[in-house]
Amino acid sequence: MSLIDRPFAHIVAAAALSLCLGLCATSAPAQSPEHVAAAKAFLEKSPVRGNCAPAQEDFLGWPAKLVQRCEYQREDMPGLAYVLDVPPEILARWVETGCSAHMASAAARCFDQVLKCALGGTGSAFVVGGDLIATVKGVKQNRFYRNGVAIVAPKSGMPGAVPIAEQEPIAHIPEKDVSGMLDRGGVAFWSTMPYQFAVKAIDLGVPAEMNTPDRREKWLEIVRVEMLKALESPENRFLSGWMSAHPITLRAGECPDERDP
Question: Where are the alpha helices (DSSP H) in the chain?
Fold first, then answer.
């Protein structure tokens, strides 16, 4: 059938598809080797990247091939963390996409700024289970995580050395048994609040509060499923939600706290 013989609607559809293929392919930010190198350097700054080895089996819903088991030392405090092994190419793409969508007018500095904010927030690590030792108000403390969220757990939020043997069962606390969340359920890498992510995922029914076991379990499951999807996508909706929540502070070149505009 010739083009002249086609119904008009088919011609319009074909033209629209051709236009999309031409424009959509160029709308995504280009992968920059410099950005990949910066993302790699960022990930290597993580304090948990000490003695790491691939997980031997799936870790509470996370495929083993994506998880590293890391033992590390922060001065007199040992740490054990199961870490999501995010490739630098993927991290770079997330940040490029976020900067293109939310800070196109300041793209030259956006990439480095977003990485800097992640380093300050969660130590450039996405801990799916275990202890991310952090300095809070000048005091080093153990902070246990599940799915990138700081949780209430034995020794969590407390100073002092916790033997690795005691950390192992804490690292394996199932989602359904998490009794509370620190930092109101904020998610690594950017401490994205649940309500900030919710505006990007209205269909998921993100809990407004984390005050019941069912709500905490649902939020942790959402985080796990969403991060696994993000590893296959140019967009990380936790990053997008965080950037959408802080446009003024980010454009000022600063790293926002939760309440900053």
Answer: 8-27, 33-44, 88-102, 107-122, 164-171, 194-198, 213-230, 237-245, 247-251
